[in-house]
Amino acid sequence: MNKPADAAIPFERRNAAHGVSWLRQAFAMLWAHRVRWLLLLLTYYTLLLAIRAIPYLGPFVAPMLKPVLAVGFLAAAWSQERGELPAIRHLFAGFRANLRALLVLGIVFVVGMTLAVLATSLVDDGRLLEVVSGTATLDEAVVADANVEAAMLFGALCALPVLLALWFAPALVVFQDCDVPRALATSLRAATANWRPIAMYALLLFLYVGVLPTFVAAIIAALVPEDVAYMVAAVVLLPYLALLVATVHVSDYVSYRDIFHPDEQLTAIHARGSDAAP
Questions:
Q1: Mean pLDDT, to the nearest integer, of 10-23?
Q2: Residue 176 within a domain
Q3: Distance from the CA of 241 to the CA of which of 23, 83, 122, 181 falls in 20 to 30 A?
Q4: Within-domain flag for 8
Q5: CA-to-CA separations, 273 to 6, 36, 154, 277, in angstroms, rounded
């Protein structure tokens, strides 16, 4: 699917309802082989934590390797769509698919997020930055500070272009052999043009990640004795959150395919049974 260097990569403009279908289709793919996907997710975060634990270099290297390892979810979803089973080996597909470009995307992410955090100092004189860097404690006074709240919003706005530019970039690098500038520019154009489904997708994630777990935790706290409430909440919410995080990773592929390859269909999400052992 390579494109001439001077040709713009075509993409579809979707309505808001597609933001719902991205999560729904991703969950269908996940549920068809949920054990395999959860093992893939566990391995992914275990590797990132192990890399982050490397003295001095780990905290810098781990974020740069995230796009490389995250390509594994794209590869596993692509393979499942074509009748194969998701496997741990897919997690290392990024090391065989334009590794240099994926590492540069990781650097773009680190630099972009760092600049967004630093920019908050323009609003709150560095209070939020002190909390993020660990030189100050996040307490009620900081949370209630209107300047800190404004700084958080400003930082999010500064980070938004970077996040949109990186939304489809790894898939464009891997599946369409884009170089980094072209992948970032194409992703930014496609994500901006599809702001409606992306906004719906983000709203649903806010509900599923923020509102629903908080509501469930509040119910558990009200009904369960305090000394075991935390344990009960963990037993109830951790499997839910694991499935949700895995669904989000799969949705990266689903949204990419929907925007850049609209004629392709999910035809093999139930192929070869479900929950087969790796």
A1: 96
A2: yes
A3: 83
A4: no
A5: 43, 12, 47, 11
